[in-house]
């Protein structure tokens, strides 16, 4: 498809489990972002990639969160030892130019930790 | 730090009413400013932007003017439609080595026929 694709759209897991969320950006977009949106809040920045490298990971809340983008396209957000507080919608976005602020968002992956 | 504050919702209007959603930003430099919109069941999408003081962004009948004197970027539309029902987010680009968007909490708009 032409837009940013995120899978799964919904994930329910138990506390302590490991979770992977995938993002397939728009073809040709070199910048890729992960945000987290809790109920009633705006998106909060987690990490962004310029190509394969994480240019800024200052928003990752702790070392249970990790993200990769090995070939400069698809990215995976990995959460270890999930906690109930990790429940949120995880948004991925991509951009042609990382300086413009013009992001194209996917529909998000809703994570529920029981 | 860099932040934006937007009016709390929800906002409920009748069709053809005038809309204003207030947004202010912290005055660290002159960041680019944005309004994003999230329609039900869809991802966030850029509605409009302004990159410098006194710029006016516009799209789909919506407008917002970058006012450095009041550090504001209020969203307006003269006549809303039912299809404008959505959540609107004000955002700014951070500055100083790591450009990323900082969002407000969002304002839910419902337009009734």
Secondary-structure blueprint:
The complex is a heterodimer of chains A (114) and B (113).
Chain A lengths: L4 E3 L2 E4 L5 E6 L6 E7 L6 E7 L2 E4 L8 E4 L6 E5 L8 E8 L8 E2 L3 E5 L1
Chain B lengths: L3 E3 L4 E4 L4 E3 L1 E3 L7 E6 L6 E6 L5 E4 L2 E4 L9 E3 L8 E8 L7 E3 L3 E6 L1
Can you put this structure into words, describing what you see?
- The complex is a heterodimer of chains A (about 110) and B (about 110).
- Chain A has no helices and eleven strands.
- By secondary structure, chain A is mostly beta strands.
- In chain A, the strands form two sheets. In chain A, strands 2, 4, 5, 6, 9, 10 and 11 form a seven-stranded mixed β-sheet that branches. A four-stranded antiparallel β-sheet of chain A has the order 1-3-8-7, with no helix packed on it.
- In chain A, a hairpin with a 6-residue loop joins strand 4 and strand 5 (about 45-50).
- Chain A is globular and about 35 Å long.
- The mean pLDDT of chain A is about 95.
- Chain B has about 110 residues and is an all-beta fold.
- Chain B is about 0% helix and about 45% strand.
- Chain B is built from no helices and twelve strands.
- Chain B has strands at about 5, 10-15, 20, 25, 35-40, 45-50, 55-60, 60-65, 75, 85-95, 100-105, 105-110.
- In chain B, a hairpin with a 6-residue loop joins strand 5 (about 35-40) and strand 6.
- Chain B is globular.
- The interface between A and B is medium-sized, with 27 and 21 residues.
Terminal residue distance of chain A: 32 Å
Structural class of chain B: mainly beta
Rg of chain A, Cα atoms, Å: 13 Å
Q: How would you classify the quaternary structure?
A: heterodimer
Shape of chain A: globular
SS-derived structural category of chain A? mainly beta
What's the helix-strand series of chain B? EEEEEEEEEEEE
Strand content of chain B: over 45%
Question: What is the terminal separation of chain B in angstroms?
Answer: 41 Å
Please describe the biggest sheet of chain B, giving its number of strands, its sense, and whether it closes into a barrel: 6 strands, mixed
The largest contact between protein chains, plus residue counts on each side, is: A-B, 27 and 21 residues
Count the beta strands of chain A.
Answer: 11
Average pLDDT confidence of chain A is 94
> Percent range for helical residues of chain A?
under 10%
